[in-house]
Amino acid sequence: MHILLIVLLVVVFAYSITLVLLNNSEVAVNLLFANLVPMNLGLVLVASIFLGVLIGMLLALLMFRVLQNKWEIIRLKKEVRTVQAQLTEANIKLAQMTEKQAEPTVVSEEPTTLINQQNP
Q1: Buried b (16+ CB within 10 A) or exposed e, 81-102
Q2: How many whole angstroms separate alpha carbon 48 and alpha carbon 50?
Q3: 40: how many CB neighbours lie within 10 A of its CB?
Q4: Residue 113: predicted pLDDT
């Protein structure tokens, strides 16, 4: 992987040098809010490409984080639904157990008599 990255960087650097050398005419750059001194066309092209790639990478990174957050939200919503279903099941079981315990016990209806014992 490192070798591939190094090769890619060398190719980009060689392309940039070639662009600067082949486009050596001077151009005036107007940035709407400032006029820059005349610059080499190749340098302007390389700077534009670099800034475009940099801004594109930053925006892609930002969008990736937004997508990651959306995926996390979806995952957490599913987890909440699962936990709520488990909670509902537990509440139903608890209610059933409470009903079983609250069933009236059969009490014998035999009259009880009090034995009155007196001590002699």
Answers
A1: eeeeeeeeeeeeeeeeeeeeee
A2: 5
A3: 16
A4: 59
Q: Which residues pair with 39 in a beta bridge?
A: 27
pLDDT digits (tens), the chain, 120 positions: 889 989 998 998 898 888 888 888 898 888 888 888 888 888 888 888 899 999 999 999 989 888 899 999 999 999 999 999 999 999 999 999 988 887 766 555 666 655 655 655
Distance of alpha carbon 4 from the chain centroid: 30
HEC assignment per residue over the chain:
CHHHHHHHHHHHHHHHHHHHHHCCCEEEEECCCCEEEEEEHHHHHHHHHHHHHHHHHHHHHHHHHHHHHHHHHHHHHHHHHHHHHHHHHHHHHHHHHHHHHHCCCCCCCCCCCCCCCCCC
Q: How far apart are CA 60 and CA 66, in angstroms?
A: 10
10 neighbors 33 (Cβ within 8 angstroms): no
